């Protein structure tokens, strides 16, 4: 099965100082051993690079070069399925924003959710369950408390 990767999981898996690094790393290992794949969208990579290079969010921020290298590693991994927004995804994204009364702080997550749905992804790995539960179409896989 293919699991969609939310940015919070990617950050936790890559940043050793993250409070849920151990749990994210363990879940990643378990899913890989079981033969699962991971869906990754370009917008997740952009958000990942933004977060891990931000000194306000990271105790030890990565340089742009290191952040790009880590993002590239994920993007090129054999276990990663690349997913992209298209016209149908944009239509669903706009529909969900209106249907659920979502505001500007929910734009990226809603676009990612629509991208995953458009690619047939039914599971999302995230600790931000609230961001995706509202759509009623995903199973949420949590990795830390």
Structure notes:
The chain has 145 residues and is of the alpha/beta class. It has helices at residues 7-14, 21-33, 42-52, 64-76, 87-99, 107-118, 129-133, and strands spanning 2-5, 37-40, 80-82, 123-125, 139-141. The protein has a five-stranded parallel sheet with strand order 3-2-1-4-5. The protein is globular.
Order of helices and strands: EHHEHHEHHEHE
Radius of gyration: 15 Å
Q: What topology, given as strand order, has the largest sheet? A: 3-2-1-4-5
The figure for the number of domains is 1
Uncertain segments: none
Q: Per CATH, what is the topology?
A: Rossmann fold
How many H/I helical runs? 7
Number of E-type strands: 5
**Overall SS class:** alpha/beta
**Nearest-integer average pLDDT:** 97
Summarize the structure.
The chain has helices at residues 7-14, 21-33, 42-52, 64-76, 87-99, 107-118, 129-133; strands spanning 2-5, 37-40, 80-82, 123-125, 139-141.
In terms of topology, how is this protein built?
Blueprint: E1 2-5, H1 7-14, H2 21-33, E2 37-40, H3 42-52, H4 64-76, E3 80-82, H5 87-99, H6 107-118, E4 123-125, H7 129-133, E5 139-141
Annotation keywords:
alpha/beta, Rossmann fold, five-stranded parallel sheet, about 10% strand, globular
